[in-house]
Amino acid sequence: MTRERDWEKLGGFYAAARKASGLTQEDVAKRLEVSRTTIQAIERGALPSGSTFTKVTATMRAYARLVGWTETSPVAILEGGEPTAVPDPASAPQLPKSDLPPAIDHELRSGRTLDSTVVHLGPEEDDTRIIVVLKGADGLSEDELDDLWSKWRKTRRQLQAIPGESDTPQEA
Fold it and tell me: What pTM, to 2 d.p., does this model score?
C-alpha cells in the first residue's frame, strides 16, 4: 500500500522531469489535454480536495510518456525505485519484420501519424490494452486538421472512459 509521502515523492519526480524538459505546468496541461489544476495535484501528490491518490491514473501514465519515462515508471517510483527512460530509438536494435497482419502493418507505415493513445483494460499487473493510432494523409489543410482533431478528442475521451478491471464478463 502506498503512503502519502510516496505520492509526494512521485509528484516531485514529475516536477523535476518537467522542469528538466523545459516545460511549464501549463505546457504539460495543454499537451495532456487536462487542467493545470490536475498537473498541480499530480506534482503535489494529492488530489485538489487534499486526499491522497489511490492508483496511478491514465493521466499519470501519459505524463510519464511526455517526460520520457516508461509507463511503468510511476509505479516503480511509488515502490521506492527510479523512473526508467524510454530507450532512444536510434540506439535500439532493429526489430524483426512485423508480426502484425499485413493490412495493419501497411496502414501503420503509410500516412502521417498524428497522435496515439493507450487504453488500459485490466488491473495494473495485467497488460491488456487497446492501442489506437491516429493517421492522416500528407498535405491536409488547417481546416481539415482542425476537423480531425475535434473528432479525435471526442473519440479519445470515449475510449478513455471505457471501464476496466471492475467489469465482469456476462454469461450468455
Answer: 0.53
